Amino acid sequence: AQSVTQLDSHVSVSEGTPVLLRCNYSSSYSPSLFWYVQHPNKGLQLLLKYTSAATLVKGINGFEAEFKKSETSFHLTKPSAHMSDAAEYFCVVRMDSNYQLIWGAGTKLIIKP
Amino acid sequence: DAGVTQSPTHLIKTRGQQVTLRCSPKSGHDTVSWYQQALGQGPQFIFQYYEEEERQRGNFPDRFSGHQFPNYSSELNVNALLLGDSALYLCASSTRTATYEQYFGPGTRLTVT
To answer: What pLDDT, in 10s, does the model give residues A32-44?
Structure first.
């Protein structure tokens, strides 16, 4: 069975410092992987996606993620955090044989001034 | 270009009642997915509609049903409401060829008392 694990429920960083949000998945197939962001009182927005092309994927707002098959990981990073990055982030996996998206429980990113 | 719209924004119902939520997809999209997001959790997939038929269904009881209209808009119906149905209900639209790249509406907040 496929699953997604976001290793931290909360991550707190200071403005201007790097961000790392961790995600591991389990899959028997070649997965497609995504990161979505949910700002308070706003809808979910696609940050970036991996669909078996380049393993380093660049997204919006300076975020990027690296697909590591050997580690079954798809961690999200950003070199320098901004106050506007404060939000909930979801790691999502989709199996090639399935239309269904499997969502992680989310990581709340807190930015300290 | 309007994005995904949902109505109503908020809804309060009593246990045992029935509710209908509505969704209009983004222009050019023909596929609609519905999700339930409980407080503090990631979205849970309910079902997906394409060509007016349910294409895939998550682990939700038959009390949850849906419909897609010829203009691609969709409804989610929930019968015999339970307290546990209180959640944010999200609609996402996509194209048939890229169902994984989903655009989300702001959601409908359902409270069951």
So the answer is: 899 999 998 778 9
